[in-house]
Amino acid sequence: MDPSGLTTDAAGCTHCTWRNAAPEYLHYHDHEWGVPVADDIQLYEKICLEGFQAGMAWITILRKRESFRQAFEGFDFRRVAQYGEADIERLMNDPGIVRNRAKVVSTINNARRACELVDEIGSLARWLWAFEPAEQERPAVVDMAYWTANPTSLASVRLSKALKKRGWTFVGPTTMYALMQAMGMVNDHLEGCVCRQRIEALRNHFKRP
């Protein structure tokens, strides 16, 4: 393994080392992580799953993602916003998801906040993408040492504060930086990873909402 956090596979392709930590990471790293997203339901799902991940390993959430989608009706936030106590109890008895009451309640709360934001702004995506960091805020070189030392960013702090002001929960700066990585707002595939240039090309051609 390269000290920068890279590893080379049998075909000679170099990837971020974390890709090899579990079979589920292969597709996630290569085809999803960092790809720009503008769909409101997908973005709400990512916010919720990053919130559930707080204090846990991401692989745990990734392995349960389909169960989460079934439990929360595809993360249709207008449906989830209507959930009441009976739904909370149903979810707390669902072995397919993380049964943390505070996080379940947060998911319902955030659905209601998402509805408010969409009704006001017209799009969750439009509001979120306004927090994309300026070019000068992004590191010139991305390696594992930078990542480890910087689990948040100025932009993720701004996003976290803005969401909390609107009543969202489980949206701390570290969680929001993970969201920004996952939704393609930043490209944190390491320098040398074969995905980095492809993701940057997708970002360059992505039409911001």
Automatic annotation (TrEMBL):
GO molecular function ontology, one term from the record: DNA-3-methyladenine glycosylase activity
Biological process annotations from GO: base-excision repair
Domain of life: Bacteria
Annotated Zn(2+) binding sites: 16, 29, 189, 193
This protein's UniProt keywords: Metal-binding, Zinc
Pfam families listed in its UniProt record: Adenine_glyco
PANTHER family with a match to the protein in the record: DNA-3-METHYLADENINE GLYCOSYLASE 1, DNA-3-METHYLADENINE GLYCOSYLASE I
Protein name: DNA-3-methyladenine glycosylase I
